[in-house]
Specification:
This protein is of the alpha+beta class. The strands form two sheets. A six-stranded mixed beta sheet has the order 1-2-3-5-6-8, sandwiched between helices. The chain has a three-stranded mixed beta sheet with strand order 4-9-7, with no helix packed on it. The radius of gyration is 15 Å and the shape is globular.
């Protein structure tokens, strides 16, 4: 299995994997991915590929912040249903976090499963000073990539594609 940046030729396969992974969701996660790309807010867009087939995908978006700073938003993370629970999502998450760090992002936020994302360093405590429509939710977590990045109040919102 290879992890690599997504390219235009991958987009149809990515949309299929994301739609299948979120088939039970009430949100159009594949539409969110396309919308984030269309508005130019994608920071890190990675796929897990094996024998020419996309097995998983992760997207990190540029968050809208006040005061302005580079904070990434993780999501969605999708793995083909038949390949879930094999570590693909974890590998994509770790690679994506490192790619955000390399881009100079000061922090990453996620709105995700409270039992899954802490293994990568996300916590609700780190998100305590973030002001968002999701503040206070156990699913709203953050991780500082730079010392002090989350020590002050920051108003934060997802790209418009998230609705």
């Amino acid at each position: 299995m290879t992890l690599r940046p997504a390219v235009d030729a991958d987009f149809a396969q990515i949309a299929k994997v994301v739609a299948e992974a979120f088939a039970q969701s009430r949100f159009d996660e594949a539409g969110i991915v396309a919308g984030v790309r269309a508005e130019g807010a994608a920071l890190v867009d990675l796929v897990a590929e094996e024998a020419g087939e996309i097995l998983g995908h992760i997207l990190f978006s540029r968050m809208r912040c006040q005061p302005p700073r580079l904070i990434a938003g993780l999501g969605p993370l999708a793995v083909a249903p038949e390949r879930q629970r094999q570590g693909i999502g974890a590998k994509l998450s770790i690679a994506g976090i490192e790619a955000c760090r390399a881009l100079g992002a000061s922090a990453i936020i996620v709105l995700g499963h409270p039992e899954y994302y802490p293994r990568f360093g996300f916590s609700t405590a780190a998100a305590a000073k973030l002001i968002s429509r999701y503040s206070g939710s156990p699913a709203f977590m953050a991780m500082a990539l730079a010392p002090g990045a989350l020590d002050e109040r920051i108003v934060i919102d997802y790209p418009a594609a998230f609705g």
